[in-house]
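Now for one specimen:
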Amino acid sequence: MGNTEATLLVELLTEELPPRSLKELAGVFGWNLYAELKRDNFIADDGAASIFATPRRIAVSISNVREVAPDSEVVVKGPPVKAGLDASGNPSKALLGFARKRGVAVDQLIRVSDGKQEMFAHRDLAKGGRLDTDLELKVEEALRRLPVPKMMRWGSGDAQFVRPVHGLVMLHGTRRVPGTVLGVKSGNSTRGHRFMGESHISITNADAYVATLLEQGMVVADFSRRKSEIDRQLLAQARHHGAGLGEYQPLLDEVTALVEHPNVYVGGFDPAFLDIPQECLILTMRQNQKYFPLFDAGGRLLPKFLIVSNMKIADPSHIIGGNQRVVRPRLEDARFFYNQDRKVRLEARVPLLEKVIYHNKLGNQLQRVERIQLLAGKIARALKCDAGLAERAAWLAKADLLTGMVGEFPELQGTMGRYYAAHDEEPAAVANAIEAHYLPRFAGDKLPEGPIACAVALADKLDAIAGLFSIGQQPTGDKDPFGLRRAALGVVRILVENRLHLSLTELAKAAFEPFKSKAPVELIQFVYDRFTGYLKEQGFSTLQVDAVLSKGPVNLGVVPQQLDAVKAFQALPEAESLAAANKRIVNILKQAEAKGESFANAEPGELKEPAERALHEAVRSTSEKAKILYEKGDYTGYLMSFSVLKAPVDTFFEKVMVMVEDDKLRHGRLALLRDLREAMNRVADLSRLAT
């Protein structure tokens, strides 16, 4: 056998694979196999992998794979030198035994160090593996490590995989690599498209895999290429009909995993169905049928949709007609649920929430609604908006959970509540708040608009966090089954991005009132942790965030402006010196307190040195001006105003000793530093900016 380098192709032919996990399955398999081969030196330095995935196959092509891996040097460690030699320097039994085991004389051993001690070792050459011998084992190992939660068995064998396996290609260049994987022997034969391609296709060369599958099998093997082609056709059809596709990207991967040779056709439905809320129709088409709805320029649903078919034919009328017949009963179901649901007012459904368990330790959904209603009213009063409307929205917020439409499509909870509330002639603010109280549902999602919607959304999220914290259900590690981190980030975003003037401390206290077993400080810290990450994502540094949050601001809505002020302050030439001076002041005051110095109520009093009198006057005059700016919310102006203190602060530390023997003078100087620190650090702890 020579040691030629060639492209290696491994393809597993199966029954239809789960579309939502196809891309991941193929990717993990391909890169697992690549890593296995690379580890044992089968792949040359310039070897690269290409991953392929269709509904009935996962495959990987790896360039520059060796037929025989090169021999490699191995160092086998033996006993430590201390144990290998006796007092006279002669080999011990342990060393002689190691040499005998390795089949060499003692003088052929080397000495190596592991960083802690020196030891004897044997340097040897390990024979490189052979592809014909090793490949089937490496393919099996790559498959074994796939993230498959549930395996299937088929036939009478013991093989298990996510779907039954019917074919295996293992080709090195033009040569078939022998082996058996999952009970299937390797070959060079695969299958084309079920209807448009040849049923048996011989792959004569691994490099010709993609072209052969397309020409003879009518199969586009590359997932990304297939996805791009679907996207191109969707956009072209949408433009042709003067329409848009809305948020269509999330469906693309799943549809790509359903077809081997995509073609896009246009279908339609009875415009009378447009009387149903369009969210219902969109969800029906996208989720159940995998269609792409079309929209007009205003975002309104059109009675048209795009079908991604697995067939390319001259006359697609049968395909289009069949899909139109299939979608109609789905739309009829939506219309039935919508009409039936509107026969019962939302408020009549609320008492029935008593039969729906929220959590076995936190009661039913009606009890939760009562808590949210009370909390939403308190928040609304703090926001100086109509508490009655906020409480009404909170009372009705969960009622749509008992509707037929939400039972069929849980994703529409809140959305259907808005429609049904509008039908019941509830105030618009109430209807909007019912939908918006779930917002934001995910990272980057829109926020509730208006104080009433914000009040109900905050109440919903804070009640969830407080309640679950009270029974010890805090998130741990990467586990967050109740989505509390998402809820806390939602609280942060609502407060900050809507600039709501609310106290996090008061919110936490109010949320915990129904629960007696936990302190609100835990909720505050949990929200602060999310807030820290949120602020860093906005571009603020760790030092800046720490400097502001260390002051424990309760009004999160103003923190971004305070951070902008800190950032502007840091750009000043005086900033570094003043931050260092603040750090020095912190240390002096801490040391004084540790020694029992009593200066909490002391006044600067009679100061003797010109430098300390100058600093005292500068602090007094500057802080008076800064206080006005702070109260106006001009945090940047507030911090900037203290730049004039650099010179008097520097002179003070050069000329004045704080810890003198005279008690009165020492306490006066400590009080001066205390006043300076309090004046400068209302927005942020500037000492934390010192590096």
Summary: The CA atoms of residues 379 and 507 lie 8 Å apart. The radius of gyration is 36 Å. The chain has 26 helices and 19 strands.
